[in-house]
Every structure is written in structure tokens, then in C-alpha cells.
Amino acid sequence: MSALSLRLPDSVHRHIKELASKEGVSINQFIASAVAEKVSAIAAEEYLQSRAERADKSAFQAILAKVPKREPLQGDEL
Predict the structure, then answer these.
(1) What is the DSSP string of the chain?
(2) CA distance 23 to 34
(3) Is 47 a residue whose pLDDT tops 80?
């Protein structure tokens, strides 16, 4: 594990301290978790973007064309 020196505005630090306390974790653990969530979100977005770039629009349209044209079932119209 590595150490990182981080400068935060006092207001952000106070907010993090409150949130970490509510969650019952240390500030360090709270920040590490928040950063891990952000890294995961960015990785997921990049993965989905790369998948989208490989998509075959005509194949997608052909699949959609097979869907029956009918009114939604009761309860599905919302």
C-alpha cells in the first residue's frame, strides 16, 4: 500500500469527516472507497464505450424488427 498526501478545502474535509463518521469508518477508508468507486465507474464507462464502438447497427435493427408490434401489457405502459 502506498501513502498519498492530499490537500482538501476545509469544508470538504469537514464533510468527509461527518460522512465517514456516519458510515462508521475512518476518513482514510472512506476516501479509499470513494476513489475505488470512481475508478470502477470510469473503467465501466470505457468498457461500455469500447463495446458500443464494435456494435453492428444493422444487426441490432434486424433484431428489433423481430419484436411484435402490439400494445403494452397491462402494468407495462408506465
Answers:
(1) ---------HHHHHHHHHHHHHHTS-HHHHHHHHHHHHHHHHHHHHHHHHHHHT--HHHHHHHHHTS---PPPTT---
(2) 12
(3) yes
What angle, 0 to 180 degrees and rounded to 10, lies between the N-to-C axes of helices 10-23 and 27-53? 90
Chain length of the chain: 78
Task: Output the nine-digit C-alpha cell for 4.
Answer: 498519498
* Residues 53, 71: Cα–Cα separation, whole Å: 32
C-alpha grid cell, residue 22:
456516519
Could you give the CA distance from residue 65 to residue 59 in angstroms, rounded to a whole number? 10
Given this model, what pLDDT does residue 6 score? 92
* C-alpha cell read off for 25: 469508518
C-beta separation of 30 from 23 below 8 A? yes
pTM over 0.85: no
